[in-house]
Amino acid sequence: MTESGPAGDADLGTVFRALADEHRRTVIAELAADGSDRERTCNSFDLPVSKQTQTHHFRVLREAGLIHEINYGNRKGIRLRRAEINRRLPGLLDLLTAERRGT
Amino acid sequence: MTESGPAGDADLGTVFRALADEHRRTVIAELAADGSDRERTCNSFDLPVSKQTQTHHFRVLREAGLIHEINYGNRKGIRLRRAEINRRLPGLLDLLTAERRGT
DNA sequence: CTTGAGGTACGATGCAAGACGTACCTGAAA
DNA sequence: TTTCAGGTACGTCTTGCATCGTACCTCAAG
């Protein structure tokens, strides 16, 4: 239900708003930098915020269509929607990885 | 004197925050779509907000390093910083023009 | 079954941001 | 010089959002 974003109704404003936050940008940049696209846990990003706030951030990223969230009940898997992003917003991930590398 | 943004200290968060607003995104998209890069007036964008709010929006765009504002005293010229943007944030303008064309 | 770590739901809070009203400045044209 | 449209400055209102506290849920491991 309601898979919005790059793979759905792709609102560029929603995507930019999602990526305006440094924590969320860090998450996507890390995912984008790892070419293996393996599933990661929310915890593995070491965000310096409470878990409630993390829930919030990952939800924003999901609603922007940037990630998939796989629910296992008591834990959650995160996966970058690389293909959809590159198809609908080509160049976006490059911007993020470039910033992270300190261009 | 504080030329921030793509041509200066390029904070991607500031740029995304600037482009998260639909009015500002419209401005940049229109500028990007016009290859002639001619100078335009603030009025020529027909933003459905008051002139005070327009002043605000153009300031945000300037502080994000996306436009130049040429002050003539009682009127103002707007110019896209295309070269700097394409150098520091390649692909960004394409994302905006693509959205506007209804990709 | 109990425990505990990972997650969510809901509410509260503090702050940033969009929008406008009023007042004022600037310069071209009448 | 008077007028007036274009812009700015400042204050205010309202909305959105990042953050956290409290409470509850879920499942795997004892």
TrEMBL record, chains A, B:
UniProt name for this protein: ArsR/SmtB family transcription factor
Entry-linked PANTHER family: TRANSCRIPTIONAL REGULATOR, ARSR FAMILY, TRANSCRIPTIONAL REGULATORY PROTEIN
Keyword set, alphabetical order: DNA-binding, Transcription, Transcription regulation
TM ranges: none
Keyword hit for Transcription: yes
Gene3D superfamilies according to UniProt: Winged helix-like DNA-binding domain superfamily/Winged helix DNA-binding domain
The UniProt record lists the keyword DNA-binding: yes
Domain HTH arsR-type: 4-100
InterPro entries assigned to the protein according to its UniProt record, in alphabetical order: ArsR-like_HTH, HTH_ArsR_DNA-bd_dom, HTH_MetalResp_TranReg, WH-like_DNA-bd_sf, WH_DNA-bd_sf
Domain of life assignment: Bacteria
